[in-house]
Amino acid sequence: MQLSQLSFKPDKNRVIDWALSAFGIIGALIGVFKGATVCVYFLGSYILILFAAAFVREWFFYQQSRNDKALISNKSKCITELTKSNKQKEKYYNCLKDLHLSAHYLRDSYSKMLDAENLNKDILDIAKTHLEQSLDKFSSVFKTITGRHCRACIKYVFDVCEEPISNTPTFYTVTLVRTDKTSSIAEKNKEYPLEGNSDFLLLFNKRKNIFRCNDLSSLKAYRNSNWPDNEDDLKCFIENQKYDYISTIVWPIRSCGDDVKVVGFLCVDSIEKDTFCKVDEEIGAIIADTLYPVITEYRKIRMKLNQEEVARP
Could you read off the pLDDT of 143-161 as tens digits, one per residue? Predict the structure, then answer.
């Protein structure tokens, strides 16, 4: 909305004043030339016209004022939206450096594993350190964008054929790295069945490309390994806000092509509702796609070391 649009029409009040003045002069001339009786009738008509003119004038003034207020209101809304948009653009611009550093550390992690002459646990530890650095920058990206505290984690998927932990033929997820160190210690070496988490299962079965929800408590039949299964316990759990997060985005770490293979998940979450938007999905997708060769190489080395350990007498 431009200020030039607040243009006004010709002044109707002045036109009415000139018309009434001319009418009054004509009435005076009639009184002089035609007599007092005609003048009285004319004067009565003149008074009625004055009232009518006053009403018309006020009506024009009201309509003009309303139109002007509408124009000013629309302009104010446009300025507000533009300011909001510029602030949001500034946030995305400010997060670019951290986004680049996140990808930078992923490259370092992959290079260390790929260039290693002797595959051992130390190589995995170095690679994992770079993954932690990458994840820290990744969570900083969303802190900048949302203005809220956000956590992030990387999980990888395995089945019993690769790393036998249970006799149940199912897929599991294990947290590889997490920004929240307290939760990371609690989750260390814990495996969670894929079917116990609605978001992971949807992505693993390729029914969704990205999972985003700004209020997990509003989802029907939502399952989470860290949430109670019992309906009454779940209600109490949500009412007392015992959850670690309520808003989340999850991206599958997967291959491309016809035979898509999901090897892990990249997650970001917040304790506050309505934290993430549609654009945020594309930000995380950049890192999730970059993670695929890193996680694939990490799993390959880990499997090889596990097999060597089992074969060792």
Answer: 999 999 999 999 989 875 4
